[in-house]
Design a protein that fits this description.
By secondary structure, this protein is an alpha+beta fold. Helices cover 43% and strands 11% of the residues. The chain has a domain of 93 residues. A hairpin with a 5-residue loop joins strand 1 and strand 2. 34% of the residues are buried.
């Protein structure tokens, strides 16, 4: 290469880590390839995601003290043209991977091509529900699509909404920003445990072993086991029979990357399911 030849741009850390994961564990290639495709789609809109309409820090802190999340749907300033494009492209990627049925893909196409009011109503319903709680048109596959496609928009809003707030008093298993459920925990280098929201990726402190699904804190009813390399853990609750994966930063050579670590821990999911637990 000539000295004046420009070097190709470096890949984002998430995509580079996913490629390295496939090199190390080829059996995870289908899931990693899907995540790479989604990352390439959503990173284009991340920087353009509008900031939310926010009240003063003191008001948001008071809301947290009352157990109220700091973001409402009305606070979000959504770019509907960008959302239509992102929904369309993510839907195609999920459908190609078999994660979205033809019927669900057709439903998405109808919303993308239809009036903004219908799409806005769908997104508002999604925002106020959790997977499996919605009724009618929001199937599990459609819920996953909305979680994935709207994450860059919601992540920027959540980051702004939580800036300057003290989360020490938030002792709920739901996200203090958007109200979403955690899909993974992060064990910090000092041993404290945080939960990570599956929708907006906000993190907040949580009990060292209590179940974030049913809040059971009886230690004898919460089992914990680690991966062979010590990088990941599973917390399984004997009361509600659900489990949560965790990334152990004390053993980690890099920061937590949810898009990577949720794929890397698929073997742990299989082990937990074999033991009779559900996510």
């Amino acid at each position: 290469m000539r000295p004046d030849t420009p070097h190709p741009p470096a890949e984002p850390p998430v995509i580079a880590a996913l490629r390295a994961l496939v090199d190390d564990q080829p059996e995870l290639a289908p899931a990693a390839d899907l995540q790479i495709a989604i990352a390439q789609i959503t990173r284009r809109v991340s920087a353009r995601a509008p900031l939310p309409l926010l009240g003063p820090v003191a008001e948001r802190q008071q809301a947290l003290a009352k157990g109220v999340r700091v973001l409402a749907f009305e606070d979000l300033r959504l770019d509907w043209s960008a959302i239509r494009l992102t929904l369309r492209e993510v839907a195609r990627a999920l459908a190609d991977a078999g994660a979205l049925s033809p019927e669900e893909l057709a439903a998405v196409d109808g919303y993308v091509r239809g009036e903004t009011g219908a799409l806005e109503a769908l997104v508002a319903t999604w925002f106020d529900t959790q997977t499996g709680d919605a009724q009618g048109e929001i199937t599990e596959g459609l819920h996953e699509l909305l979680d994935t496609a709207l994450r860059p928009f919601l992540a920027r809003a959540a980051s702004a909404a939580l800036t300057g707030l003290d989360l020490a008093g938030w002792n709920r298993p739901s996200c203090p920003a958007c109200g979403g459920e955690a899909d993974v925990a992060v064990i910090l280098r000092d041993g404290r445990r945080c939960l990570s929201c599956h929708r907006c990726r906000a993190q907040w402190p949580w009990h060292a072993w209590a179940c974030p699904r049913c809040t059971n804190d009886a230690r004898e009813h919460v089992a914990s086991f680690a991966s062979r390399d010590g990088l990941y853990r599973i917390y399984a609750c004997g009361k509600c029979k659900r489990y949560l994966k965790a990334y152990d930063s004390r053993q980690a050579p890099r920061p937590f990357l949810p898009e990577v670590d949720l794929i890397a821990t698929l073997p742990l999911d299989a082990a937990a399911l074999q033991k009779g637990f559900t996510a």
